[in-house]
Specification:
Blueprint: E1 5-8, H1 14-23, E2 25-28, H2 37-44, E3 49-52, H3 60-66, E4 72-75, H4 85-90, E5 94-96, H5 103-118, H6 121-129, E6 150-154, H7 158-169, E7 173-177, E8 191-193, H8 196-202, E9 205-208, H9 222-227, E10 233-236, H10 245-253, E11 259-262, E12 282-284, H11 293-311, H12 323-326
Helix pairs in contact: 1-11, 2-3, 5-7
The structure holds (2R)-2,3-dihydroxypropanoic acid (DGY).
Length: 331
């Protein structure tokens, strides 16, 4: 029997690939940059499975270009906003993803960004590197306190809850907003569910942890910034498109809010001449929320396990379109 054909759109940790190489013919895109869409169309033709990244546009056209034998698209990420899930379900294609394994690493980075913005750590480093550190001064690089402050979490899912636990350890008060209201209990953490307006008005720090969907695109827009405190810090480790970038730029430039600390941006990557990067009150890192060696390997293991399970007709550990498993015509 011929071995299943699999395309992987970038190099992932080698250890995760071993079980895949034993059972499948694997083609890996070796470049640092993602395959351009036209090349992706070529590469997926005739494959049974694809391991995709958040930088790949996986639409109906691509699924059709792959062919009817395509059984699974296994995303090497928890977010699947780059994949047309409905089109996949219609074509009986299982979409896997990697929730859970990256929760704590992403929460670590969100909290790191929050601290960096609050205490102006990156500005401090730039100041020292520029040779401007001449003395201790009572008014030098004054920031805002994290302890005792209020953190508003937009999207109290796995990562939001992990951030709430960290915040609670720092003596912060935690508010949260869920797009579909849902009471969340976290052992040892006091957190109050509020509507978005209340969260924006009361929070000293607002941290975004909701997926990007048509409902959440530009959830944080000009109106939202008008509700925030002038000292507020916005942290985004979810998806850039949840924030209206132009409105964010204006809010930061005019002092409408205090600071932004971003792991994700829109556009992404942010070009070096982007106006946001000309502002002193912004910290940007290049979408590294899950970027620890251990976590990226776990993501690889899970992406491979999702893919192999689906190829064998078994229920994969994590499916983003579970309704596909119940469609009689897909069995
Ligand atoms: C995800 O998983 O969606 C992150 O953005 C990358 O780890």
């Amino acid at each position: 029997m011929s071995r299943p054909k699999v395309f992987i759109s970038r190099r992932i940790p080698a250890a995760s690939l071993k079980p895949l190489l034993q059972e499948c013919d694997v083609d890996v895109w070796e470049d640092e940059l993602p395959p351009p869409y036209e090349i992706l169309l070529e590469k997926v033709r005739g494959t049974d499975g694809i391991i995709s990244l958040l930088t790949d546009k996986i639409d109906a056209n691509l699924m059709d270009a792959a062919g009817k034998q395509l059984k699974v698209i296994s995303q090497y990420a928890v977010g699947v906003d780059n994949i047309d899930l409905e089109a996949a379900t219609q074509r009986c294609i299982v979409v896997g993803h990697t929730p859970g394994v990256l929760t704590e690493s992403t929460a670590d980075l969100a909290f790191g960004l929050l601290m960096a913005a609050a205490r102006r750590i990156v500005e401090g480093y730039e100041y020292v590197k520029a040779g401007r550190w001449r003395t201790w001064h009572p008014l030098l690089l004054l920031g805002v306190d994290v302890h005792g402050a209020t953190l508003g979490i937009v999207g109290m899912g796995r990562i939001g809850q992990a951030v709430a636990r960290r915040a609670s350890g720092f003596g912060m008060k935690v508010l949260y907003y869920n797009h579909r209201p849902k009471e969340v209990r976290i052992p040892g953490v006091e957190a109050e569910q509020v509507d978005l307006e209340t969260l924006l008005r009361r929070s000293d720090f607002v941290s975004i942890h909701t997926p990007l969907t048509e409902d959440t695109r530009h959830l944080i827009d000009r109106r939202a910034f008008e509700m925030m405190k002038p000292t507020a810090v916005l942290v985004n480790t979810a998806r850039g498109g949840i924030v209206d970038t132009e409105a964010l730029y204006e809010a930061l430039k005019s002092g409408r809010i205090g600071y932004a600390a971003l792991d994700v941006t829109d556009p992404e990557p942010l070009p070096p001449n982007h106006p946001l990067l000309s502002l002193p009150n912004v910290v940007v890192v290049p979408h590294i929320g899950s970027a620890s060696t251990t976590t990226r390997t776990r993501m690889g293991d899970l992406a491979v396990s999702n893919l192999l399970s689906a190829l064998k007709g078994k229920r994969p550990p994590h499916v983003a379109n579970p309704e596909v498993l119940d469609r009689p015509e897909c069995r």
